[in-house]
Amino acid sequence: MNSSLADTLRELFTTLHQHPELSNQEFETTKTLRAYLEKAHIRILELGAKTGVIAEIGTGSPVLALRADIDALPINEQTNCAYLSKTPDVMHACGHDVHATILMGAAYLLKQQEKHLKGTVRLLFQPAEENFTGALQFIDIGALNGVDAILGLHNNPNLTINQMASRAGAFSANVDRIEITVTGVGAHAARPESGVDPIVIGAQIISAIQTISSRTVSGLDAVIVSITKFQGGNTWNVIPEKVEMEGTVRTLTPEIRAKVKQQLATIIENIAIAMGGKAELRWFDGPPSIINVAEWVEFAQKVAKQVGYDIIDFKPQLGGEDFAHYLHHLPGAFINLGSQSSYSLHHPKFQINQDMIMPAANYLSQLAQQALIQLAQNR
Ligand SMILES: [Zn+2]
Ligand SMILES: [Zn+2]
User: Fold this and answer.
1) Could you say which ligand is closest to the alpha carbon of residue 69?
2) Which helix (H) or strand (E) segment is 376 a member of?
3) Which residues contact 45 (CB under 8 A, 6 or more apart)?
4) Could you tell me the distance, in angstroms and rounded to a whole number, from the CA of residue 25 to the centre of ligand 1?
5) pLDDT class for 57, splitting at 50, 70, 90?
6) Helices and strands: H and E segment counts in the chain
7) How remote is the CA of residue 70 from the centroid of ligand 2, in Å?
8) Which residue range forms the structural domain that includes residue 29?
């Protein structure tokens, strides 16, 4: 059975990789996943998702959710693999194709054990992770209704395929976007004293906000403030009236996030005032940081060890992951499994080692079965 499952999963992975779709456009991907679920007689829940699919195995409570994301990126693939993307400028460069494949593998294994399950496993094939909207869409349509806990995974190119990594507490970053407008008074470049130069103010602001990570928070708290766009003026001899900036702030905890937001506004507004101008900060909340529940991390590590993974300590990283939204509603954990790629996530040459698929599917299936027993005992 398992050699034929391996073949089925290799075929699914190839199909998904060759036909990547961008966030919220995963129509063919959804059709493919539904067909694989139907082939195994796995119950699909019709909750009205535009893309993505939700299914269930087993009956009654407790209910454990397993989540995989399914969307791809606007990147032109540059690997030399045999199953290249057939869609120009779209690529599964974050490995969401392998996440969906692993979850399908776990689903097939769980289906074989359906009679013995101590509750229900809900499968979330979630769209639109890359633009951070998919988890919220799924929560809105009721994907978490009745669920007691949730587990999710991401491949990690820096780990070998027998390595599992996770950690209790902060796992990914709060990913917030900022816009800053500095307003001065335009003038002739030769007579700056008759105006207020927003470019000089903007430059001071950029330098000053870099002190937040070194002077406002502890050296042990991670903070990144990156200004990634700076626009103002359109010729060489005129001081412009306005400068527009954009950037991102990355932090790990809600407390530091709030503190940085406050200090950023204070620095920006007051530097502008001190120099005779005006500045405004606009802050857009992105996904919060994943805060893993310690007991669920320990549980996932215990089962990983049982099925042969080496457990690696994970350092939190400052990327974003919309799985965080689920953990605002439910206990659970997010983990990494090694995909052993020579290139990083989102790189045009990113390529996973397919030998990770079967062990990961088996692990996820074990994890779900044991989690249901654990949840039932805790009642
Ligand atoms: Zn990604
Ligand atoms: Zn990803």
Assistant:
1) 2
2) helix 357-377
3) 54, 55, 56, 122
4) 16
5) very high
6) 9, 16
7) 9
8) 2-171+289-377
Sequence-distant (6+) residues with CB within 8 A of 220 are none
The whole-angstrom separation of Cα 334 and Cα 336 is: 7
In angstroms, rounded to a whole number, what is the distance separating the alpha carbons of residues 328 and 317? 19
Ligand nearest to the CA of 126: 2
Residue closest to 187 by CA, chosen among 196, 178, 179: 196
Q: Which amino acid is at 287?
A: P
Across the chain, mean pLDDT equals 97
**22 and 142 co-located in one domain:** yes
Closest CA to 298 of 159, 121, 167, 169: 167
The span from the CA of 22 to the CA of 6, in Å, is 27
- Tokens for 294, please give them: 């310690």
Question: If you measure from the C-alpha of residue 94 to the centroid of ligand 1, how many angstroms do you get, rounded to a whole number?
Answer: 5
Closest CA to 251 of 243, 262, 240, 259: 259
Do 237 and 330 share a domain, yes or no? Answer: no
**Closest to 313 measured CA to CA, from 168, 149, 148, 161:** 168
Give residue 130 CA to ligand 1 midpoint distance, Å. Answer: 5
Same domain for 37 and 143, yes or no, is yes
Q: CATH no. for residue 216? A: 3.30.70.360
Tally of structural domains, the chain: 2
The string of pLDDT tens digits covering residues 269-293 is 999 999 999 999 999 999 999 999 9
List the one residue out of 166, 155, 154 whose CA is nearest residue 315: 166
**Ligand nearest to C-alpha 96:** 2
Query: Is the pLDDT reported for residue 147 higher than 90?
Result: yes
pLDDT digits (tens, 9 = 90+) for 151-204: 999 999 999 999 999 999 999 999 999 999 999 999 999 999 999 999 999 999
